[in-house]
Amino acid sequence: MIIFIYFLIPTISKAIQTYFVQFGEVKTLFEVVDALEAQLIQIDDNNKIITNSQFCILSKRTLFTEGQTFQLTNYEFDPISEDSDLLIDIVIYGNSDIYGLTINNGLFHANLNTKITNLYHLNFTDDQNQLPQLIISSKHLFFVSANYAYYLDFLNLQNKGPVLNWQSKKTLYYSEIMDNYLFSVLGIDGLEIYFIDQDYQSYLLDHQSIGLLTIDFRDFSIVKIKDNNYFLYILCKINGVIIIELIISDTKILSKLLLKNIGSKTDGIALTINFNEALFVAYKTKNQYYVIQFNIEIVSRKWGSVARFNISNKIIDIDVNNQFILVQGTHTHFIIYYLDKQNAIPFQLTSVKQFVLADNNIYGTTSKYLFQFQPKIQPFQIKCFIDSDSNQIEQKYKLMYRNNQGWQQKEFKVNFNHSSLIVQKSFLLFVFLLFFIQILLCVAYRLYKNQREILTQSQILESKIRQLPQNRASKLLMPHTFRATQPNLETRINTNDFTDDNTILQKDKKIF
């Protein structure tokens, strides 16, 4: 019985790994949900690779989205050409409000819950040399460029005006607000800090105050350590990534250079920091774009690269949350699930001006739309199709894939153009075999149960006999003594010389 089951189980397993595809049917056999990368090959019965694989393909992971868009209508603007850019920047306020900045200083507001949109004309002075950046604080919106800066109270739109003490700059690459401080990187001039709640008094962090011979700052991220204590991660085109500790007290700032020359010194494009202060930097070396993940140990003043993610298109900017890296390109963008060391997953979206990550949602703006979506991954799929119904074909495949536990493999067969009758017979045979096994198991169990009952009754009888008086129990427990005397007696009776008449016993006559 056990041997029968031993030989039957591989047959059942093999049947489970066989799939059936009919003519004209595009069939998804199964998904490999946990695969990070995968490869499908066709093999023969000797497990040799067949180079010209047919009928089945491995569908790569794709990104699909669920979200909503808000269109900026053309008639609300002054007459401009249809191809001109309108929306140029975006910020998020809370969990439901999106603000977009237009090229002619309009503010486009959309509420995700009510789906209501509004457009406000601000009439700020234009900077002909640079488009402004839109920044948000807890109370105000800021419109910042190299030559001017304006604030707007978004709870009271009448409360607006120029930022006091704003000084014109040669270049302004990027600005960000943390607490009541506005930080701006200024290229070779360093980094400027404005005190918002103290009439925008400013402090310039230049190469002398930092302790470097020359600098060229292009991007930065800031991390708050405790009250008035911050770490600045600055992308420099001369010194690579540098880390500066800031201690801010009233209008006084103490700075200390902690690390420098992190990563490539000259090839950096953008940087960002995730929730546990892992550093991500985008680079371009010759014609190759890529993102490096760094592990920084500030206390021990050490750093090292953790992973590299190659990008097949141009990188404009990057952002990160606790799950993935968002890489902004021109028309093709990428999502990288860096915790699993996955390859970059591309998606297409044209005319994107800016992306913003908030929680697991991606917000952004094109020239005419504000949008919000949540990315989801369609895993690897095995799909099969046959365009001829003339022959029945059976092919064997091997799927090799990598998940978090390492490389795995799975073999399976695909039968093409098998009739439904054959499939039905195979299924009925499989059901019959299972039913037959069940009957055999039931019979074996019944026999085993009966044998146990007989053994139990025998043990009970023996126990009762042992409880009888000694002489009686001895005779019953030793039946061989009684059986030994009976044959002798029977022999004695049957061997006596009786005549035929005397061999018939009388009815009541006793033999002994």
Secondary-structure-based class equals: alpha+beta
The stretches of 5 or more residues where confidence is low (pLDDT under 50) are 1-15, 479-512
Total domain modules: 2
Reported for the largest beta sheet, the result is: 5 strands, mixed
Q: What is the overall silhouette?
A: elongated
Q: Mind telling me the CATH class of the largest domain?
A: Mainly Beta
CATH superfamily of the largest domain: YVTN repeat-like/Quinoprotein amine dehydrogenase
C-alpha-based Rg, rounded = 42 Å
Question: What is the helical fraction, as a range of percent?
Answer: 10-25%
In percent, how much strand structure appears in the residues?
Answer: 35-45%
N- to C-terminal separation? 55 Å
What is the CATH architecture assignment of the largest domain?
7 Propeller
Average pLDDT confidence is: 82
* CATH topological fold name of the largest domain: Methylamine Dehydrogenase, Chain H
Total strands: the figure is 36
* Number of discrete helical segments: 5
Strand order of the largest sheet: 1-36-35-3-4
